[in-house]
Amino acid sequence: MVSLQDEMFQKFNFDTEWAIKLISKITDNEDIPIEGRAVVKQLLDLQVNAERYFFGIRKSLVEFDEVLEVQRKHVYNLRQLILTGDSESCRQQIFQYMQAVVDEIVLSNSDPNKHPSNWNLGKLFREFIQIGGEILNEYFAEIKADDLLSSLEHVYGVNSIEVDTFSLPNLPVPPNDFTGIRKKVSSLRRWFAICADDAAKKGRYQVTANLLRKYLSDFLIASYLELVHESGFDDTYIQEVEREVMLKSLDRFWRDHLINMNRLSSAVNVRSFGHRNPLEEYKIDGCRFFISMLSATRRQTVESLLQYWSSSVESEEFVTP
């Protein structure tokens, strides 16, 4: 039994005034049940409209959740790789993080369509040194932006390079802790990834930018391996530290990302007043948030690892008589 004054009738704009007027003419008792084809038809129409309304809500929720589901799968797969992968896979993941951090710095401060003299080399150099702090500052303290520019001009137009031993001329040579077939395979793999990077701009000086990306990433990786080697810890402990740092950084930024996505899902509905599709706006901003989250995770992981091992080395030097 459904009351004619039920809020469902009002919510879906069903006219029940005719039935109320009819009842008032017949009797003053409002509790008398009404039966008839007209009433049944009204209720059936009401049910159809209600189902359409709630189906639209469920569909919208699923579409919004699909955006986050793609991101969730990526993060969970990455966590699974960190937790269950062998030591080599975790180490390669760290190398990829370092390469990505360097790529972001170089690509944001360079333009392959312009001569390196028009690049923001000073800012690029400062951001790179900031990643490793004192570790990289020891090598590049005397190097200026003009020195880097001179090196880039020197390598412009080179036809071939030794991938595993490449270094920019007149600049510090990367530490020699990354040697052997392992270095060659890793360097070659990363060089192929740099050359095949579709996200990078195309231009006359693209090869120069790629060589700079390779040099800085090789230097960062070699410096990290040198720190790990000088720490004197066994491989098991090193692997545990690397896993823990990677997981903590990922989990921290993933939690913050979920909060931001929840706020975004509530905020995008307002944009419909500007004749913009809330779902499309959610996808665009959600993708932008996710990319920023991954970028922050990589940078935090790299900086934390470098800081941890450098502090371990410094503490050992302090204790050693």
Automatic annotation (TrEMBL):
SecA Wing/Scaffold domain ranges (all copies): 33-308
Signal peptide: none
A molecular-function term among this protein's GO annotations: ATP binding
Pfam short name (any one): SecA_SW
InterPro entries linked: SecA, SecA_Wing/Scaffold, SecA_Wing/Scaffold_sf
One Gene Ontology cellular component annotation held by this UniProt entry: chloroplast envelope
GO BP annotations listed: intracellular protein transport; protein import; protein targeting
Name of the featured protein: Protein translocase subunit SECA2, chloroplastic
